[in-house]
Structures are given as C-alpha cells and as structure tokens.
Amino acid sequence: MSTFPTTRLRRLRRSRALRDLVRETTLSLDDLVQPLFVAPEALPNDRLPPLARVTVDGAVRECEDLLRAGVKAVILFGIPEEKDDEGSGAWIENGIVQQALRALRPRFPELLLLTDVCLCEYTSHGHCGVLHGDEVDNDASLELIARTAVSHVDAGADAVCPSDMMDGRVAAIRAELPETPIVAYSAKYASSFYGPFREAAGSAPSFGDRRGYQMDPGNVREALRECELDIAEGADVIMVKPALPYLDVVRAVRDRFELPLAAYNVSGEYAMVKAAAAAGDLDERTAALESLTAIRRAGADIVITYWAKELAPFL
Ligand SMILES: [Zn+2]
C-alpha cells in the first residue's frame, strides 16, 4: 500500500463536484417520511412546528404542501376526542386516523400513507396496551393492536407501523393482513428523547413508565433478537428508534439483516438541534442534513424525520 507523498486523500476533496462524485452516502426525499399528528382540534407548536396537531382538514392542506415540496410519505398519529381503558379510539370506524385516511386517500393517490399502530394515544392511562392491574397485559393487547391495523388498512393506509413493543404483535397483525406491508418498530428503546412527541401526541403514561415493554438503552444484542422475531413474524421493514443515540444499533441491524431498515429521528433529536440553532450555537440546516446523512451512513434505508418538509428544498 502506497502512502504519503504518493497517496493524498485531499485530491478528491478539492472541489464540490469531486466531493459529490465520490460521496458514499446520499440523502434523498425518496428516503424520508414526515410524521403528522391528527386531532379533533388543531394545536399549533410555534417552537417545533412539525409537532403541531392538525385537524383532518388541516392534514389535507399539510399533505398538499408536503407533496408540493416533494415529500412522498407521511406517518399518521392520532389524538382522539376521548380516551378509555382499552383505547377504543384507535380502531373505531370513525376514529381520527381513520377519518384522516378517508380524506387523504382519494385526494392523494401518490402519497404514501403509513400509520402508527399503538394504543397509548387512545388509552386513559397512556400505556401502549391494556392493563391487568398495574401491568400491561401483552396477550390481551394483541387483538386490539391487530384490530387497529385492520381498521387503518380498511380506511386506506398503505402500510402499518406497530410501535407498541408487545411480543407477538407483528404475527397478530400479519394473520389479519396478509397483503399489507408491516413496518415494525422492532428495536424501540425506552428513551428520554421522546419528550416533545409525548406533548404533541398526548401520550405520556399517567403512572409508571414504559421500561416494562420498551427496550433498555444498554442493549444491542437484544435489538437483534427483536428484529429477528419481527422478521420471522412477517415484518417487511424493521426499525430502530431513536436514531442518533443508537447509530451503533442501526449498524448492527444493517449488518445482520437484509430487510429494508428504517430509523426514527425522534422529536428530542430534532428539538436539540432546533434549540442549539436558536441559541446561535450551530446552523440548523447543515446540522440537520449532517444528522440525517449520518443515520443513512449507519445503515438506514428510510428515515422518519420532522425535518423532511423543511429540508425538502435542499435535497
Ligand atoms: Zn405506544
């Protein structure tokens, strides 16, 4: 192997065109998914605009904007009018996500409509499944989660994304929906980076926390087991969430499995850059592009990010 002075790696960094030519990882709107929070009443968010709640009409206007900007996929979250112990707002015919899907589907045939499938926005206690005493009852939750997924597909969803972290949920959904792509939140960690999301989705647990079903931040081998199980149960895409503090997990999953891999650049990651930019500590756009490129470089094919719309003009 030749070394300096024969080898000079700076030769390929000399101009923008050269750097563009040899770049290993690129970022494209094809790979980005914008989250959208649909609720009976709008709730603007001045500091973190993509974490606002929109009505069904607002979602229609937002999707027009997104498509015009070049964003091709959204993932819908719903905030119901009323919550109950079972989270029935998640699957009822006239649920908020179902209403949004029925409004969006015929208007935007080219827009990919993904839906988050969970009960936590809909349960009065804020946990991701039904309770048995103070515990989330895994097996009793599966039927309700599958029912939610079916109702989303009936209303027009292209793909369903179970985020509850119950064991066996992918199999339960797959049994009901043999034809629908399942994007499984396979390695979803019990993370402190979900803060702004919980505000937007109104899904903070009323007691306890989610460490009994979401993953421990210290584990990576367990993430591989979670992915392996979801694949065996019929997942089409696997996901790591959050993204930036877990790039080693993204890389480990990428190296082990052949399926398309998504990573969720979560609200806390977004908010940190926004806050640093607002304080004048860094440039938001370049920091955001660098963050998303890093997530792709770690091995993610798909990135769910609050920046999709804002960055669209620069991609
Ligand atoms: Zn949940």
Task: Please tell me about this protein's structure.
There is one protein chain. The protein has helices at 16-22, 56-69, 96-107, 138-155, 169-176, 195-201, 221-233, 247-256, 267-278, 284-298, 308-311, and strands at 32-38, 53-54, 73-78, 112-117, 131-132, 135-136, 159-162, 183-188, 237-241, 261-265, 302-305. It has 315 residues and is an alpha/beta fold. The strands form two sheets. Strands 1, 2, 3, 4, 7, 8, 9, 10 and 11 form a nine-stranded parallel β-sheet that branches. The model has no long low-confidence stretch (mean pLDDT 97). Bound molecules: zinc ion. Zinc ion is lined by residues 118, 120, 128, 163-164.
Q: Bin the strand percentage.
A: 15-25%
Average pLDDT: 97
By secondary-structure content and strand pairing, the structural class works out as alpha/beta
**What fraction, in percent, of the residue positions are helical?**
25-40%
Q: Cα distance, first to last residue?
A: 37 Å
What would you call the shape?
globular
Major β-sheet annotation: 9 strands, parallel
Low-confidence stretches: none
Bound heterogens, unique: zinc ion
| β-strand number | 11
Order of helices and strands: HEEHEHEEEHEHEHHEHEHHEH
Number of helices: 11
> How large, in whole angstroms, is the Cα Rg?
20 Å
